[in-house]
Specification:
The protein has about 475 residues and is of the alpha+beta class. It is about 40% helix and about 25% strand. It has a domain at about 185-295: Glutathione synthase, substrate-binding domain superfamily, eukaryotic (Rossmann fold). The strands form 5 sheets. Strands 3, 5, 6, 16, 17, 18 and 19 form a 7-stranded antiparallel β-sheet that branches. Helix 9 (about 185-200) crosses helix 10 (about 220-230). It binds adenosine-5'-diphosphate and magnesium ion (MG). The site of magnesium ion has 2 residues, from loops.
């Protein structure tokens, strides 16, 4: 690739490199590719650029198209799982004995299930993540890493990165390459689903409540969504769990109110990790789940995104159950699955333990956690599995084949990070949005793709955690 040759030359010419990097950062400011800083996460006095790669990374066209093509089926699948209490009960039975967080979520799920159904409008804003697995024989294949069903981010401030990368390529004379970058305008599509759910709720004065955290590093991305909604005359408010707990209430019809405002949709940008909750927040979550407001996601859709559910879906016959008359859809989804193995108690789980301990470098051990930095690789995998292998604690995890993505060269730009040519790998994310009203899917869309890239020094990932940066496919 011409960009690879160019990078090799660039790195030997510090003056040229620095001036190109300055140009890239200045473009980032111009295009609103911004992030608040870890030092002052709640202030807009000082902001920095959102981390990104200097150049786009080469991505095989077939892999990207495959990921985009399967997304509406993934949307449907997530929705179907969320509507299947028997499936969720069975899939998570072992997990909730071993993992307190999943058990707490499941407790809320059961409580809500016991009450009469309040809301028939259901929606999801999800992101399915993939890596391109590079096999030894030279072939490659798209493999799903996970599906995020709560607080799935990555769109917002990064939407104009394609324009930035195109500019950078042009400015160094790589004109042909600059034509291999597609625009992807994710925020309008994702916001449209929120607006649709709000419209179906049918109260013009009701608001969309963004449930947010105390430390608001990603606030500028939220603002991109808020702006789309305000443009459609959909009012938005931001509240924290504590505020909902102190000032939120349900009326006799279970309509949710806060500060005198009726809430049509609760959009969770927080609440995906145990640390996000105090006893008070658990009460607030239950209050919102019991309410008539549309939840994005509701508790069952949240549970549908657990790693355990992902593993159960890979079992023979399970996808067929969700798509009984659509073998081609089953095939399309299953083609993206890596090997996934149960660690529930029993002979099958015993075999998983033995297999993992015999070849720890071929697998990843995953707890029921989101947000990056929670998985175990190599020696850590061995250590944790040795610790929990003989009792029910092991059911808190699943085992997955380790994907070996192709390595590329790039320069990662992040505040404070020294400039250097880095061996990196990328993850493709595909945004999906759906809204269902009773039996009818009224919206089922692909919201575009997101590329995120990290140094291969890191096994795990995360933009906010400072490992991953935004990137963009240079389609090859
Ligand atoms: P989280 O919900 O915390 O984001 P993920 O399943 O997405 O958990 O894993 C976090 C990161 O770990 C991924 O972004 C990827 O970089 C790495 N990872 C996850 N699963 C695998 C795998 N099977 N093979 C290789 N790397 C993986
Ligand atoms: Mg992830």
């Amino acid at each position: 690739m011409a960009t690879k040759v160019f990078l090799q030359q660039l790195i030997t010419n510090p003056d040229r490199l620095n001036s190109l990097v300055d140009e890239a950062k200045e473009l980032a400011f111009q295009y609103g590719i911004l992030l608040r800083t870890h030092e002052t996460p709640n202030s807009s006095e000082v902001v920095t650029y959102a981390p990104f790669t200097l150049f786009p990374s080469p991505v095989p066209k077939a892999a990207l198209l495959q990921a985009l093509a399967v997304q509406t089926h993934i949307n449907t699948l997530v929705d179907k799982i969320s509507q299947d209490p028997d499936f969720l009960e069975e899939a998570l039975a072992g997990t909730i004995k071993a993992d307190e967080f999943t058990a707490k979520l499941f407790g809320i799920y059961r409580k809500v299930q016991q009450e009469a159904q309040t809301q028939s409008i259901v929606m999801g804003l999800i992101r399915a993540d993939y890596m391109v697995d590079q096999r030894e024989d030279g072939t490659s294949s798209l493999k799903q890493i996970e599906i995020n069903t709560i607080a799935a981010g990555g769109f917002g401030v990064s939407d104009r990165l394609p324009v930035l990368h195109r500019n950078i390529l042009k400015s160094v004379g790589l004109l042909e390459e600059s034509k291999c970058i597609q625009d992807t305008n994710r925020t309008p599509g994702m916001s449209a689903a929120l607006a649709k759910a709000w419209e179906l709720y049918g109260q013009q004065r009701a608001v969309i409540l963004f449930l947010v955290e105390e430390v608001q590093l990603s606030k500028l991305s939220h603002r991109s969504i808020e702006r789309e909604l305000w443009n459609r005359n959909v009012p938005v408010i931001r509240r924290k769990f504590e505020e909902v707990s102190e000032r939120g209430s349900l009326d006799a019809d279970k309509r949710l109110f806060i500060d005198g405002l009726e809430v049509a949709v609760v959009y969770y940008r927080y609440g995906y990790m145990p640390d996000n909750y105090t006893d008070q927040s658990w009460d607030a979550r239950l209050l919102m789940e019991r309410s008539l407001a549309v939840k994005c996601p509701d508790i069952s859709t949240h549970l549908a995104g657990t790693k355990k559910v992902q593993q159960v879906l890979a079992r023979p016959g399970v996808l067929e159950k969700f798509f009984p008359d659509q073998p081609q859809v089953v095939e399309q989804i299953r083609a993206t699955f890596a090997g996934l193995y149960t660690l529930d108690m029993g002979p099958e789980g015993d075999r998983t333990v033995a297999m993992a301990l015999a070849n720890p470098d071929n697998f990843v051990l995953k707890p029921q956690r989101e947000g990056g930095g929670n998985n175990y690789f190599g020696e850590d995998l061995t250590r944790i599995l040795q610790e929990v292998k003989s009792d029910e604690r092991r059911a808190a995890y699943i085992l997955m084949d380790r994907i070996r993505p192709r390595t590329e060269q790039n320069i990662l730009l992040r505040k404070g990070l020294p400039l250097k040519l880095t061996s990196v790998c990328y993850e493709i994310g595909v945004c999906g949005a759906y809204v269902r009203n009773g039996q009818e899917m009224v919206l089922n869309e692909v919201g575009g793709h997101i590329l995120r890239t990290k140094s291969i020094e890191h096994n795990d990932a995360g933009i906010i955690g400072g490992v991953t940066v935004f990137d963009n496919p240079l389609i090859i």
